[in-house]
Amino acid sequence: MFIGHFGLGMGLKKTAPALSLGTLFIAVQLLDLIWPTLLLLHVETVVIHPELGGNRILEFKSYPYTHSLLGALCWSLLFGGVYFLLKKQARNALILAAAVFSHWALDFIVHFKDLPILPGQAMYVGLGLWGAPWVENIIEAILFILGILLYLRSIQFKNVLGKILFAILIALFILVQLSNLWGPAPTSVSALAWMAQFQWLFVLLAYWVDHNTKQSGVELMA
């Protein structure tokens, strides 16, 4: 699951128009934004199996802090809580907290049984939709397309630059998704982690896009 997470972030703009798309992107992808740094620090681990191909290339050996059920709940509460302390907007804080947890919920649908319930406990869950890649890809594409449509219905571009930046953002998503599906496997865990840091570019682009949009009767907050 990649563009599906970001598709949900775009769709949430309709529900919370005052939130910047960049902030929504951080929320829905927070677990995967933290994960590569923990890989580089050897706090969490993954094994690459290029010989297996498809969704079995990565074997998630240990990611209790970012992708356990308890970890996801803690990050959700932390992100929503920090936003509330800064902005004093309870509704948007709840939306952001739910957006953070949505990442684990979507991963639960697609992952094989490798998502831990609690850190340090050998109980793992996952519905394994990765085992039916065409179904998973169709669902992900639907989430992505619906997200784009909902986002475009919730904003108006103030200038041509906003339209160009949004087009670039969508094109990059598609290129990365195609690379994930048919590109070569990462050469090492470090290479994978650094490649995953590329996701912050989507966040920065999203803030830039939203800076060049306006919402009817709502002033952008964060």
Automatic annotation (TrEMBL):
Identify the keywords attached in UniProt to this record, alphabetized.
Membrane, Transmembrane, Transmembrane helix
- The record lists the membrane-crossing segments as 21-43, 63-86, 93-112, 132-152, 164-183, 189-209
- Protein's recorded name: LexA-binding, inner membrane-associated hydrolase
User: From which organism does this entry originate?
Assistant: Chitinophaga hostae
Lineage, uppermost ranks = Bacteria, Pseudomonadati, Bacteroidota, Chitinophagia, Chitinophagales
